[in-house]
Amino acid sequence: MKSKILAEGYLKILVTGGAGYIGSHFVHYLVENKHQVCVIDNLSRGHIESIPSNVVFKKIDLLEFQNLKSAIADFSPQAVVHFAAFAYVGESVEKPELYYQNNVVGSYNLIRAVAELGIKNFVFSSTCSIYGNPNNIPISEDELSNPINPYANTKLIIEILLRDFEKAFGLKNICLRYFNAAGANPNGLIGESHFPEPHLIPLVLFTAQKKREKILVFGNDYETQDGTCIRDYIHVNDLADAHLKALQYLIDGGNSTIINLGTGFGNSVLEIIEKAKKITGKEIPFEIVGRREGDPAILVADNKKAKEILNWNPKFGIDEIIKTAWNWHQNQKY
Ligand SMILES: NC(=O)c1ccc[n+]([C@@H]2O[C@H](COP(=O)([O-])OP(=O)(O)OC[C@H]3O[C@@H](n4cnc5c(N)ncnc54)[C@H](O)[C@@H]3O)[C@@H](O)[C@H]2O)c1
Ligand SMILES: O=c1ccn([C@@H]2O[C@H](COP(=O)(O)OP(=O)(O)O[C@H]3O[C@H](CO)[C@H](O)[C@H](O)[C@H]3O)[C@@H](O)[C@H]2O)c(=O)[nH]1
Asked: The NAD(P)-binding domain covers which part of the protein (predicted)?
């Protein structure tokens, strides 16, 4: 059966956090696929230049309920994709109030506005951090939710909120629990740009560029092959594709659900450094230091559900992730 999205040609989609790293890749993907987009972002952590010039942009904070609701009503979207959040684990431990305010209150405002306006389809950026220190690897959606930091707690609260709003208002939703987003658009126009940057792959590439003296490896005494943590790095364009497929699934009548997004393969910190050395041809000095608090040893996705339900298959492997990120970082001025 032909999907309703394809049959009708395009969708009107409202994207929160569309000036951020993952959100902007999704927005570019939507525009490439001829969908009509409105971005809402307060630019607290995003970049206006990451938004394509032909999309509607509204600089609004999710905490301003009335402005938010009127902007959504003006655009009148068929679906909302919600990326906007603060997403630094360390910061959330130091400033939980900031995270509950921005992530929980902001998302509550958005979900309430969407429900009141009668919009029925919602896709939410959740995280594999919700599993905390999981008992089973690879991690399926049946794994116990056991978050171990305020950031992940806020994401679980929003998932629960969505469940309740579906019951009361019929707001169908998919919570996508991403593993480690990485890489950049192969067109070289957008990439990962966080200030400060906490993520491993950009920091490794900064080291290759001599913008940092060395990369600190947080612990080599984990129960893994080389003692360093293993993560499932998923290309940001594969995430974009999964979001569009999730919307398609909801609009075609699919039920609300939770879906992991990862490749199903893991790489250790030392493997990432080694691969980056080969790809960049540069020296990447590193130093082993103590563990970072709250880091689980291994996080690798069981992605069967995404494959079955969304008919999604990640196309980029770890080499393409590092290559596209390197391509982007080499063209940045900072
Ligand atoms: N980066 C990852 O590896 C990863 C993994 C799992 C989940 N996630 C989730 O994916 C989403 C996007 O992550 P990212 O790495 O692109 O983050 P990002 O910081 O690059 O983008 C977030 C965007 O949201 C905007 N924003 C934040 N609070 C806002 C508010 N109150 N009102 C309006 N706009 C606001 C920021 O300005 C920014 O443009 C987040 O929800 C994050 O929790 C990220
Ligand atoms: O300078 C660094 C930075 C990171 N690491 C290690 O590299 C791995 C990846 O760390 P990142 O900070 O890049 O990513 P996280 O796994 O901590 O977290 C990311 O992915 C999570 C899901 O796995 C959450 O969603 C979170 O929002 C997002 O930042 C970890 O083992 C970390 O200990 C280092 O050794 N040195």
From this structure: 14-323
Give the separation between CA 282 and CA 278, rounded to whole angstroms: 8
Report the largest interatomic distance among the alpha carbons of the chain, rounded to a whole angstrom.
57
For ligand 2, whether the C-beta of 198 sits within 6 Å is yes
Q: Catalytic site residue 151? A: yes
Give the pLDDT of residue 195.
87
Structure tokens at 142: 């049946």
**63 close to ligand 1 (CB < 6 Angstrom):** yes
Residues 90 and 98: their CA atoms lie apart, in Å, by 12
Q: Are 131 and 145 a contacting pair, CB within 8 Å?
A: yes
Q: Was domain 10-184+234-263 assigned CATH 3.40.50.720? A: yes
Question: Rounded to whole angstroms, what are the CA distances from 216 to 253, 270, 328?
Answer: 47, 11, 22
* Model confidence at 174: pLDDT above 50: yes
Stated pTM of the model: 0.97
Give me 94's structure tokens.
Answer: 């130091």
In this predicted structure, the answer to whether residue 9 has a pLDDT above a threshold of 90 is no
Give the distance (Å) from ligand 1 centre to CA of residue 223.
Answer: 31
C-alpha dist (Å) from residue 149 to 40, 92, 290: 27, 7, 19
Query: What is the enclosing helix (H) or strand (E) of 190?
Result: none
Which residues are bridge partners to 177 per DSSP?
126, 260
- The domain limits of the chain are 10-184+234-263
In angstroms, the CA 270 to CA 235 distance is 19
